[in-house]
């Protein structure tokens, strides 16, 4: 966009065609006739290529389609009934998903906030650390999965070998072979891979806080903790909300990592809703049932996100 | 900067936690597969660059890189443009309507991708967009618009409406206000969305794999799969490809980071 | 406004420019135009071998271009499903026996293969997995023995013979353990579904038992299945599997085997070539645990025919696709593939060059049963069986694991 002078702006205004059909009848919106143009491209692409396909897939939750044949029949809410009352694996997946998401949420948010507080100034060291922490985000999930498959190997893996070397032999585990801890081992990899990404959001948020506020507080004799509590934390609200929401959604959806590392096992101990959905659709050939899982999946995330907004709003008091 | 050594200790430890597994990846690229298993975490015996040579000479890797660049750059550009336009429109709407539109887009974030894979493929097929880069670009835009709208709207909401009003009084068109004021001030959030989108699209496997069938159009992540077998994966080769494909991203990040930071601080000072 | 229109114009140009880059032109009936067919499978380790074969095919058939696409096996179905539905981008493709083959066949995904010239190239006994209602829908290409690979050198060193019944199997394992070797290297990701086969084959030799569990005629809580699970548990409890077997991946187990740290590898003949690559000096053979007394043993091993090659019913170039399939079944070409990839094939008159292939080819003359697990047509039942093995390895009792699995089977039957 090249810069224009004031006169040419007015000339351009005259040349702009006016759209004569009224869109809204609200008085407050001036120039509203142009607003719909802003929506248009994104709206079209999103609706046609995302929203509609999703809706059609969701509608399939009321059928018994297997994903391949040209015929299927309606079964009403049968899939949902089975899912909620007679599917032990679904219940397990839901629990696993919550364990995973909550674990990731706590660590990812706290770590990224903590590091942001240490790294928000633009020094050379800080830029270095920020870039380093961000690198896992750049690496594709296939490689992250393999790297950690390797690190977690009970016999030749880095983690156990390292623990033995420093004399903590009794801490060695079957990190992803033991059904009780596997999901947490995976949660670790998830926040290892994404903390650097959330770090950026917090840094941006902190840098946006005007330094005069801190100076004024210093003059008033505020401690570091008070500065954090009264200035940083409240003003970081948008950033915090974003990080929490994004982390929740991202970890709830976590798919590539789990499929590549444990494929839901052992004994479904690392099966989460997105992987269950995938297995039902493409391994068990129950696309209709899988769609029912997607519906529940989305409801759960929506609920969780809503809860978070509430909780975050309360802590702002 | 108080407590210097303590600070460096914490950062250093986490830095190592990040670095060690990654260096493992790098070291592996210089080993052969048997060597990888007999000497998993040690230094490679020789600095074997066979894998890199093979990739650069035999595989049409530059073609893949070119395709990845085309898809990623165009997708990111349109995501930024479209979501910022939508965000701008949303903040002008009255409360209730604004929330509905915002919700419509942002709800897309919770949809698991596996769900619309098949309907999207069938649609793309009908439109003749299978096996085209354009198809992948359009799909990428569609699934990243939610996060774009989410982040940018969140930011634009904090901009003072008076600025827009003042500009309108001066007779500026909506487009002018959007491009000269709203966009300029939203650079930090745009940069965030830009970086996220760039990385996500660059590494995306699901849709390129689904939609791209011939060598001329395949993107880089797909090439990685050629090294993944049913029972044996050629990890040194796979990782060499990963390293090569991460280099452009790293460079882009290092540069973007500089602009990003200057953009952020200039935005903060306004 | 003007800027917007200019940008829109640019967009249109881009759309047109980045348009269709592949040549899916060509029409199956007009043989003078160039046709492109897709060859889709999941074996990334075979890409080099196939590349060379494709080159030769294209030389012989200058009007046909073959585009090979490899999807990883765990996302294979999801990637081909869209193509199967629309017919776009899928011509010759591979599938797994059992539930995947069944489901695709029922959905009319396969074109009938009735060309005698093509069919006669295969060993008739070995292509049953791709047959239904007396019609051939897909041709299994690979032949695999899903029984443990063993290190002949170690056995010789310790003067061990291949055990012929359960007690000697236990004794052999004990000897191996005492001498510092891991008797059986077991990987949590693939071994449960591999190892269970030889364990079942003699415990319930009516080679349809698992399918009958599906249909409800039998139960997993029957004696033969509980016995199988408790025998697997016994091996684990006695320490004959390596530590943390469930957390070990197939490549690690294979690597440990190649490094001669373990004497048996609970995978299958398909792994022999890979192991050889890592350790050219190793001498390998195949053996199956015999779970009963010698005189009661009906089978010596388990075989599977997999990598079922078929032609998509909706393909627009069926003739070209069938040509390619026929080419792959040519004895000379098959031999080239077999030796390059270390796989046994179902094609007739294949010449095996490597000692490993020659060793596993010997099994064609032994009494083997088709892999019990693949007689299951419903994937959820198959998964329940696999999970029960993982459960006993995590410490659950055989009876409880069997009950849990049977519960899952009954749930599947209801829905």
Structural notes for this entry:
The complex is a heterotrimer of chains A (317), B (270) and C (415). Chain A is 70% helix and 0% strand. Mean pLDDT of chain A is 83; it is low at 1-30. With 317 residues, chain A is mainly α. Chain A starts with 5 loop residues before the first helix and ends with a helix. Chain A is globular and about 75 Å long. In chain B, helix 4 (61-92) packs parallel to helix 7 (133-156), helix 4 packs antiparallel against helix 10 and helix 7 runs antiparallel to helix 10. Residues 264-270 of chain B have low confidence and may be disordered. Chain C has 2 domains: 28-143 and 304-361, 3-Layer(aba) Sandwich (D-Maltodextrin-Binding Protein, domain 2), CATH 3.40.190; 149-287 and 378-414, 3-Layer(aba) Sandwich (D-Maltodextrin-Binding Protein, domain 2), CATH 3.40.190.10. Chain C is 44% helix and 14% strand. In chain C, the strands form 3 sheets. In chain C, strands 1, 2, 3, 6, 11, 12 and 13 form a 7-stranded mixed sheet that branches. A 4-stranded mixed sheet of chain C has the order 8-9-7-10. In chain C, strands 4-5 form a two-stranded antiparallel sheet. In chain C, helix 11 packs across helix 12. Chain C is globular, with a radius of gyration of 24 Å. The model of chain C is unreliable at 1-9 and 12-31 (pLDDT under 50).
């Amino acid at each position: 966009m090249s810069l224009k002078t004031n006169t040419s702006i007015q000339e351009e205004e005259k040349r702009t065609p006016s759209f004569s059909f009224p869109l809204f009848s609200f008085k407050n919106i001036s120039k509203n006739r142009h607003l719909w143009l802003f929506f248009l491209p994104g709206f079209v692409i999103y609706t046609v290529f995302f929203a509609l396909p999703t809706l059609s897939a969701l509608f399939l939750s009321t059928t018994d389609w297997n994903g391949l044949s040209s015929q299927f029949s309606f079964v009403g809410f049968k899939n949902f009934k089975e899912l909620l009352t007679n599917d032990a694996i679904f219940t397990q997946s839901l629990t696993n998903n919550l364990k995973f998401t909550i674990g990731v949420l706590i660590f990812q948010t706290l770590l990224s906030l903590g590091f942001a507080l240490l790294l928000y100034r633009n020094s050379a060291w800080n830029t270095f650390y920020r870039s380093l922490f961000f690198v896992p985000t750049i690496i594709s999930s296939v490689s992250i999965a393999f790297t950690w498959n390797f690190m977690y190997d009970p016999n030749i893996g880095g983690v156990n070998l390292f623990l033995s070397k420093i004399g903590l032999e009794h801490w060695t585990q079957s990190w992803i072979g033991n059904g009780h801890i596997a999901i947490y081992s995976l949660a670790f990899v998830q926040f290892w891979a994404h903390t650097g990404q959330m770090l950026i959001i917090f840094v941006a948020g902190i840098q946006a806080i005007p330094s005069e506020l801190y100076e004024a507080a210093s003059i008033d004799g505020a401690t570091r903790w008070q500065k954090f509590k009264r200035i940083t934390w409240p003003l970081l609200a948008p950033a915090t909300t974003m990080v929490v929401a994004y982390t929740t959604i991202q970890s709830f959806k976590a798919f590539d990592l789990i499929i590549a590392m444990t494929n839901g096992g052992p004994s479904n101990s690392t099966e989460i809703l997105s992987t269950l959905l995938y297995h039902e659709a493409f391994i068990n050939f129950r696309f209709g049932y899988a769609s029912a899982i997607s519906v529940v999946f989305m409801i759960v995330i929506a609920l969780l996100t809503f809860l978070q907004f509430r909780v975050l709003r309360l802590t702002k008091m | 900067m108080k407590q210097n050594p303590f600070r460096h200790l914490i950062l250093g430890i986490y830095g190592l936690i990040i670095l060690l597994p990654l260096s493992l990846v790098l070291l592996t690229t210089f080993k052969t597969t048997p060597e990888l298993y007999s000497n998993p975490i040690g230094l490679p015996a020789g600095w074997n660059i066979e894998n890199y040579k093979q990739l650069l000479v035999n595989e049409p890797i530059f073609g893949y890189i070119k395709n990845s660049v085309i898809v990623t750059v165009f997708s990111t550009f349109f995501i930024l443009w479209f979501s910022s336009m939508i965000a701008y429109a949303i903040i002008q709407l009255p409360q209730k309507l604004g929330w509905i539109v915002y919700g419509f887009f942002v709800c897309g974030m919770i949809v698991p991708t596996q769900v619309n894979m098949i309907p999207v493929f069938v649609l793309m097929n009908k439109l003749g967009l299978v096996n085209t880069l354009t198809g992948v670009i359009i799909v990428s835009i569609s699934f990243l618009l939610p996060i774009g709208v989410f982040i940018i709207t969140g930011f634009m909401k904090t901009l003072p409406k008076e600025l827009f009003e003042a500009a309108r009084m001066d007779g500026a068109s909506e487009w002018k206000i959007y491009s000269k004021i709203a966009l300029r001030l939203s650079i930090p959030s745009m940069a965030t969305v830009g970086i996220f989108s760039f990385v996500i699209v660059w590494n995306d496997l699901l849709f390129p794999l689904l939609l791209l069938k011939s060598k001329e159009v395949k993107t880089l992540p797909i090439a990685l799969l050629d090294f993944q077998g049913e029972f044996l994966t050629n990890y040194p080769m796979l990782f060499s490809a990963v390293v090569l494909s991460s280099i452009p991203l790293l460079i882009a990040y290092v540069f973007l980071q500089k602009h990003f930071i200057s953009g952020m601080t200039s935005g903060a000072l306004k | 406004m003007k800027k917007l229109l200019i940008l829109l114009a640019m967009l249109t140009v881009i759309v047109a420019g980045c348009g269709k880059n592949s040549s899916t032109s060509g029409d199956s009936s007009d043989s003078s135009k160039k046709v492109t067919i897709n060859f889709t499978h999941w074996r990334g380790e075979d890409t080099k071998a196939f590349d060379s074969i494709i080159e030769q095919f294209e030389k012989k058939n200058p009007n046909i271009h073959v585009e090979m696409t490899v999807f990883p096996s765990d996302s294979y179905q999801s990637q081909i499903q869209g193509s199967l539905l629309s017919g776009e981008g899928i011509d010759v493709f591979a599938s797994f026996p059992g539930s995947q083959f069944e489901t695709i066949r029922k959905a009319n995904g396969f074109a009938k293969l009735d060309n005698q010239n093509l069919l006669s190239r295969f060993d008739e006994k070995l292509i049953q997995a791709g047959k239904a209602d007396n019609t051939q829908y897909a041709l299994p290409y690979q032949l695999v023995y899903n029984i443990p690979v063993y290190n002949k050198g170690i056995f010789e060193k310790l003067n061990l013979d291949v055990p012929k019944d359960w007690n000697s199997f236990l004794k052999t394992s004990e000897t191996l353990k005492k001498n510092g070797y891991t008797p059986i290297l077991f990987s949590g990701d693939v071994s449960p579904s591999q190892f269970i086969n030889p364990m079942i084959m003699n415990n319930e030799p009516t080679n349809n038992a698992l399918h009958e569990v599906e249909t409800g005629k039998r139960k997993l809580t029957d004696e033969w299945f509980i016995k199988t699970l408790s025998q697997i548990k016994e091996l684990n409890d006695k320490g004959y599997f390596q530590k943390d077997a469930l957390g070990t991946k197939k490549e690690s187990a294979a690597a440990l085997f190649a490094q001669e740290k373990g004497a048996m590898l609970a995978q299958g003949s398909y792994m022999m070539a890979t192991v050889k690559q890592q350790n050219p000096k190793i001498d390998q053979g195949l053996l199956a645990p015999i779970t009963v007394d010698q005189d009661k043993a009906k089978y010596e091993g388990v075989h599977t025919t997999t990598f079922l090659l078929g032609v998509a019913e909706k393909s627009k170039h069926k003739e070209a696709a069938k040509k390619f399939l026929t080419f792959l079944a040519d004895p000379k070409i098959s031999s080239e593939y077999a030796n390059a990839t270390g796989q046994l094939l179902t094609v007739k008159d294949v010449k095996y060059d490597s000692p490993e292939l020659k060793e596993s080819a010997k099994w064609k003359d032994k009494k083997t049963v088709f892999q019990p697990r693949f007689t299951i047509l419903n994937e959820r039942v198959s998964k329940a069986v696999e999970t029960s093995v993982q459960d006993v390895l995590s410490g659950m009792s055989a009876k409880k694991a069997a009950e849990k699995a049977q519960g899952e089977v009954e749930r599947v039957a209801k829905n």
